[in-house]
Amino acid sequence: MARDRSGSVRMGPISIFTLVIVVCLAVMAVLSVTTAHADAALAERQASFTQDDYANEIAGQTLMAEADGALATVRAQGDTAEAGTAAIRAQLNTLIERAQAAAGPDATVDVQLNGTTLTAHIEQPSKRCLDITLGITAQANLRITSWKTSTTWTEDTSDTLWMGA
Questions:
Q1: Residue 119: how many CA atoms within 13 Å on its side-chain side?
Q2: Is residue 140 a part of any domain in this protein?
Q3: Which pTM does this prediction carry?
């Protein structure tokens, strides 16, 4: 009795096809894990930057509130911007200390008073910065001239490219 082989399925092509699918799935799994790890690292860095931005904002708001508090007695007496500048100058070290405390122990706070202009530069270790410029008006009020966040960037020149022969 002869067997009919026309209806049988050969296992060679199916095995190769299954192997290709398994390899593709393994590559996709590795790529997914790698992408998830990169996304997590980016999210952590963004969270750190956001936290530093908030710390800078708190320090800036503290500085502005303390400066306005120093000007409150000048306003109550009806004095001018010159008296307000003198009041700020007398309280400048206290303003810096309180802004530093609000920014955190690792932050740097630089506050300058030039005439009727109070400038501050607050920088976190992550190089996130807040630059503030406040003006003292004739009525001894504070006016925000500039309030800008930025990141200090240092170029990495350690890698050199081949420039040709």
A1: 7
A2: yes
A3: 0.74
